[in-house]
Amino acid sequence: MAGHSKWANIRHRKAAQDAKRGKIFTKIIRELTVAAKGGPNPDDNPRLRAAVDKALGANMKRDTIEKAIAKGSGQHDGDNYEECTYEGYAVSGVAVLIECMTDNRNRTVAEVRHAFSKRGGNLGTDGSVAYLFTRTGVILFETGDEDALMEVAIEAGAEDVVTQDDGSIEIQTAFEDFLNVKEALIAAGFTPDNAEVTMLPSTQVPIDDADTAQKVLGLIDMLEDLDDVQNVYTNADIAPDVMAQLG
């Protein structure tokens, strides 16, 4: 991991934009619906449990959550979404991984390919960049007592605790242990500033000029604007001063 929390800066920025666009609920409902195919009980379905946690964190009403679960588990008729992943490269060789949920693969791949083409990137083949990413739970504290956080986190099953140059602390977990660790930290009195399951890259591409950063972020924006796209991950390592310039 780099010594500063680039992924958190970008993800916070995107979360705020998604909320403004009103798309966050649509994406979460689709996620709940697909996750519920593995069973309607969150206690027996870790993926659904994570989706419910995300929905509650976004202040979604319980009734809306329950309707989405019922639809996904076959209790109600609804759209038949399937998952698909696309991979490619942005400018400067930045790897891009896109997770989609769609009822029309042909439409989705055409829209994703168009975004890459318009923003100077290239859609790649299956497996071209996926190997660079690992699904990981990341729990972020802007400030905190590293030793106290580490004690609780490791005891609850966390894999690593990383202190960044800006003083923030990132606790990393296996996907399966994410909610257990998060809940243990909250029970111990530590409320995270951000917590999510993401795809962390094993290597990063440093970006220290605003023009390149703007092109990469422009591709991310265009992809995330697509209705079928759930998540976009990259290994872009944008310098903090460049992120500050771009707002």
Write the topology of this structure.
Elements: H1 6-21, H2 24-35, H3 46-57, H4 62-72, E1 82-89, E2 95-102, H5 105-118, E3 122-123, E4 133-141, H6 146-156, E5 160-163, E6 169-174, H7 178-187, E7 194-201, E8 205-207, H8 210-224, E9 229-234, E10 236-238, H9 240-246
Parallel strand pairs: 8-10
Antiparallel strand pairs: 1-2, 1-3, 2-9, 4-6, 4-7, 5-6
Low-confidence stretches: none
Average predicted confidence as pLDDT: 88
Overall geometry comes to globular
Helix content: 40-55%
Could you give the order of strands across the largest sheet?
A: 3-1-2-9
Portion of residues in beta strands equals 15-25%
Write the H/E string, N to C: HHHHEEHEEHEEHEEHEEH
Biggest beta-sheet profile: 4 strands, antiparallel
Straight-line distance between termini? 23 Å
Radius of gyration from the alpha-carbon trace, in angstroms: 18 Å
| Number of contiguous helices | 9
Tally of strands? 10
Protein structure class: alpha+beta
Walk me through the structure:
The chain has 247 residues and is of the alpha+beta class. It is built from nine helices and ten strands. The strands form three sheets. The protein has a four-stranded antiparallel sheet with strand order 3-1-2-9. Strands 5-6-4-7 form a four-stranded antiparallel sheet. It is globular and about 45 Å long. The two termini are 23 Å apart.
Concise account of the structure shown:
By secondary structure, the protein is of the alpha+beta class. The protein has nine helices and ten strands. The mean pLDDT is 88.
Please supply descriptive tags for the structure shown above.
four-stranded antiparallel sheet; 10 strands; 247 residues; alpha+beta
